[in-house]
């Protein structure tokens, strides 16, 4: 008799606790971090994306999300997920040279982007996984690499041709799965690419913003249909903004770069990285060209947080506001929009919207994107790794 009672009791305990874990599983939170590449802070007013405007109104928002320097895609995406300035996480630009590896990292180099040796800090998906929270990335710079011995539980090899609708459908499938990830990333590039090609105010950029808006509407509707609106938070960010550029205000540097005093240079329209054999001669030569500054590494203003890393070259050249570098040896086209400038320039700011059970309707002062990392860790109930943020967003998160 006692035997049977004990058995029944065990069955009851198992049934009760598994039901309990099942319920807890259902209640656990998921943060979907969405990046709309190149979505300038004022595109909501300018291009009127209806769904984003409604999320902004009913969620936590700010006028502007301030990027890190340089205001480029890779450094900023990686700052958002690590809470570190570029000098501290090491992805100092989209392309850079490492003197110890004697190799150049580039966003277009599949092998490099998937190689963990380039990445410092601890991305949120690693922080999460280490503490037992599953992560799935539908693209994010760094998500293909093994960092601190770990990758996201699920990740995809970057392919910009994958349609937005496929990305959203996959995220919804992850949400429906029994093993719902706690952290999900989702990335869209077209607002940035249209902004470059046609300019920030163009009809093409407006259409790209509207398209991403309708995809995000589908995502929200999907979350509601699955019945997860009480546990899923959307954190919508962009990595940087976009400034107008044109051929008239371009500084052609192919000639300068060919002159003998430069050992190595890395070109972008908003920054040249320079290693020189003869700095004095190089500076003299540069004097003949206007509309940019040549800055020695030790003179880079402290606010850029762009000094303490061996990958930062001895010299950088940056164009004055309204100007861009061009290099006809590499590319003859001049874009209608660009970014990469001083991160405190307003045009370089992005967007931030937090929407879901962890957020109330509130608009707060502009803040730096390095604050997003600890905010997500806080929502997920995990301990963040060392970072440069000041926990500024935590007071705004609902328990
Ligand atoms: P930018 O020149 O700073 O505007 O960089 C934007 C480009 O980065 C876009 O054209 C994307 O195709 C590319 N990109 C974004 N995410 C990734 C990724 N995870 N892997 C490789 N390239 C990416
Ligand atoms: Zn970008
Ligand atoms: Zn861009």
Describe the structure.
By secondary structure, the protein is an alpha/beta fold. It folds into 2 domains: 264 residues, Alkaline Phosphatase, subunit A (3-Layer(aba) Sandwich); 88 residues, Gyrase A, domain 2 (2-Layer Sandwich), CATH 3.30.1360. It has 13 helices and 20 strands. The strands form 6 sheets. Strands 7-6-8-1-9-18-2-19 form an 8-stranded mixed β-sheet, with helices on both faces. Strands 12-13-15-14 form a 4-stranded antiparallel β-sheet, with helices on one face. A two-stranded parallel ribbon has the order 3-20. β4 and β5 form a beta hairpin. α8 runs parallel beside α10 and α9 runs antiparallel to α10. The radius of gyration is 23 Å and the shape is globular. About 1% of the residues have low confidence. Bound molecules: adenosine monophosphate and zinc ion (ZN) (2 copies). One zinc ion binds next to α9.
Ligands, deduplicated: adenosine monophosphate, zinc ion
Give the helix proportion (percent range).
25-40%
Q: Which fold name fills CATH's third level, the topology of the largest domain?
A: Alkaline Phosphatase, subunit A
CATH architecture of the largest domain: 3-Layer(aba) Sandwich
Could you outline the blueprint of secondary structure elements for this entry?
Layout: H1 2-27, E1 30-36, H2 43-47, H3 50-58, E2 60-62, E3 65-66, H4 73-82, H5 86-89, E4 95-98, E5 103-106, H6 110-113, H7 124-130, E6 135-138, E7 154-155, H8 164-176, E8 183-188, H9 190-198, H10 203-226, E9 232-237, E10 243-244, E11 250-252, H11 254-258, E12 262-268, E13 271-276, H12 279-287, E14 292-296, E15 315-319, E16 324-326, E17 337-338, E18 352-355, E19 362-364, E20 367-368, H13 372-380
Parallel strand pairs: 1-8, 1-9, 2-19, 3-20, 6-7, 6-8, 11-16
Antiparallel strand pairs: 2-18, 4-5, 9-18, 10-17, 12-13, 13-15, 14-15
Bound molecules: adenosine monophosphate (AMP) and zinc ion (ZN) (2 copies).
Residues 38, 73, 192, 196, 339 line the site of one zinc ion (ZN).
